[in-house]
Each structure stands twice: as structure tokens, then as C-alpha cells.
Amino acid sequence: MKTVILTDGGMGQELVRRSKSEPTPLWSARVLIDEPDLVRGLHIEFIRAGARVITINTYSATPERLAREGAEDLFKPLQRLGIELARQACDEAGDATIAGCLSPLFGSYAPALTISYQETLDIYRRIVAEQADGVDLFLCETMASADEARAAVTAASESGKPVWVSWTLADHGTPRLRSGETIATAASVLDGLDVAARLLNCCRPEAIAAALPELIDLGGPVGAYANGFTSTEALKHGGTVDVLHARHDLGPDAYADQAIGWVEAGASIVGGCCEVGPSHIAALRDRLEQAGYQISGVQ
Question: What whole-number distance in Å separates Cα of residue 78 and Cα of residue 101?
């Protein structure tokens, strides 16, 4: 029986939907302080839906984003809160692997580094230092370029924890990172670094399906978790997520159809990104079990 690791879905969009506050450029970070019960509760819902890996809700709590909003002093408190709320959710809902979050420093879908590689690496090291003692693995996610991923993976690898790297793809055309680089190119710059799994995320499910063969050819465990946006082009640097719109053809069953296809193609890690909620993860869990797959945690 093939085993599949089921991860959670997207935290940010779901929290924006549930929160009493208006969206801000910090996306889901502020809710850690203002409405921590929402964060804890959403983690719990994902675990009860079947997720065996949850990611701490610190995606937008990067030093640069916080500084841009005049909130840099919140960096360490937000990192601690993100870990604490995930741990509390596991205590209440059941055991799950907690993934640390190394997200794009300046905003999603922006492939060009706006500072040097060394400065990028130093910032990722700051984030790793705050998260390492409280997480089980590191997820370098929504990496839009080879250098962005190399910096994140290098910093994460220094922790001694397992590292997953996940690239985000252009939504249309030949499979490429949003930088225009090939998956093979992005993977090659990680040679010599210990990467436990390679994934694709926060792009259209159709883009993932087209790119999976190339990812699988690299060898080792692979995975995917797509978003449910109609497009990401409207989101500009410093913008807010309310400018993005959800597709109407990716309900829980339709999303499960897509994800089962990735598993059948060879993916062993699946879940969801933006606009993929607990009901999607529950439907995917049911489909995996019906198809005879065993859902497992990280070994």
C-alpha cells in the first residue's frame, strides 16, 4: 500500500475570510496577535480534516514585510506565537508534524531578489534561528527563483532539521519557475544541500500537473499543493490579498480530482495552498483512502 503525506491547506486566505479585520499587506501575521483563537482553530480544523503536516502561520512575518509596515519589533513575538499556536492545536486535535515557514521575504510571486544573495541568506538565518527549536522540519515555500530557494534551503539546512523546498510556477505555458528558470536549473543550484523533498506550490493545479514529470525525474520524494486563484497578477508588492479572486471550479471534490492525479503520477506529499480550506483537505483525505492509499505522517 502506497503511503501519502497529507498536508494542511492555505492559512492566509482562510484567516482573512474569517477575521473581523480588514486585510493588510501583512496578510495573516497580525491575526496572530489580534485573533489567536482563529489561528489555533484553523490549525485544529486542518488536523481533524486529515492533515498530518501543518505549517506555522508566519508566512508574512518576515523582517522586511514587518519593517515596511513599521512593525519590525513584532518579528520575534510573531515567530513565537506562530509556533505556540500550532503546538496547542496539535495538543488538542492530535499529533501532526509542525513545519517551520521560510516564505518569500518581500512578497509572493516576485522572483527578482531586491537585495544581495548574502543579505537574503542572512535574513533567512534570522528566521531559522527563531523557529528551529519549535518545529519538526522546515518548509521553504513559494520560492519563485533558484537563488531565493538556495538562500532559504541553505539557512534551513544549517538547523539540522529536515528541509522541504517548494517552488512556485508560472501559471501558463511551458513549466517554469516564475523567474523563467527551469525546474532542473532550480534543483541544480541545491546540489550539495540536504533536501528531503521537492514540491511545487501556489500556482494553478494545471501548471503543477504539467510540471510534475520533470520534478519526478529528479528523483526522491516529491509533492504538490496548488492555489485556487483565478490569477495572481493583480497582487503587487505591498498589496493586499483582497485583490485576488477564487476560482469557482475548484471546490473540494474538483480539487481532490486534481490532487489524486498528482499522486497517481508519483507525488507522495499533497495538500493545498491559498483558497484550499479544511473541507478540501477532508475531501482529499477521503479520496485517498477510497483509492487505497495510506495517509501517514513524516517518518
Answer: 12
